[in-house]
Amino acid sequence: QVSLVESGGGLVQAGGSLRLSCAASGRTFSDYAMVMGWFRQAPGKEREFVGAISWSRGSITYGDSVKGRFTISRDNAKNTMYLQMNSLKPEDTAVYYCATKRGFGLYDVNGYENWGQGTQVTVSS
Predict the structure, then answer these.
(1) Which of 23, 26, 28, 88 can pair with 123 through a Cys bridge, CB separation 3.0 to 4.6 Å?
(2) Residue 58 half-sphere exposure, CB side, CA atoms within 13 Å?
(3) Which residues of 101-117 are buried (b: 16+ CB within 10 A; e: fewer)?
(4) Assign residue 30 a region: left if phi > 0, alpha if psi is -120 to 50, beta otherwise?
(5) Contact residues for 58 (Cβ-Cβ < 8 A; gap 6+)
(6) pLDDT digits (tens, 9 = 90+) for 57-94
């Protein structure tokens, strides 16, 4: 029902910044309660929760590994979520995905139903 497209990834030196975008289309946040989240997966690693936003409420949560460095924001008119990544480290290298789920379960990392194709972020040392 929801189509997600990530963009903004690339190659950056350690200490640099990137801003990722996740544009949603189809039946989206204004139609019913939804949570939109960011995840990442590095080679050989399990998928890791980065952060999420309750679209209608505006509440945001972050994973411990990115707290204080990454910031989630949104543009309601564009149905787009952003991930501003500052002070990037080599360990941030991963494919970053956005995903959505119904309801208000902001702090539950499970239950995400719709996923984008991901965008590659590579941080060089």
Answers:
(1) 88
(2) 2
(3) beeeebeebeebebebe
(4) alpha
(5) 74
(6) 889 999 999 999 999 999 988 989 999 999 999 999 99
- The answer to whether the CB of 73 falls within 8 A of the CB of 84 is yes
Placement of tokens 């902001």 in the chain:
106
Tens of pLDDT, residues 11-28: 999 999 999 999 999 876
Nearest one of 31, 75, 86, 69 to 53, comparing CA atoms = 75
Q: Are 87 and 11 in contact (CB under 8 A)?
A: no
- One-letter amino acid at 42 equals A
| H/E stretch holding 97 | strand 94-102
Q: Name the token pair of 51.
A: 């952060």
| Residues in CB range of 97: below 8 A, 6 or more apart | 6, 38, 39, 40, 41, 47, 115, 116, 117, 118
Say which residues have a Cβ less than 8 Å from residue 95's Cβ, sequence separation at least 6: 40, 41, 42, 118, 119, 120, 121
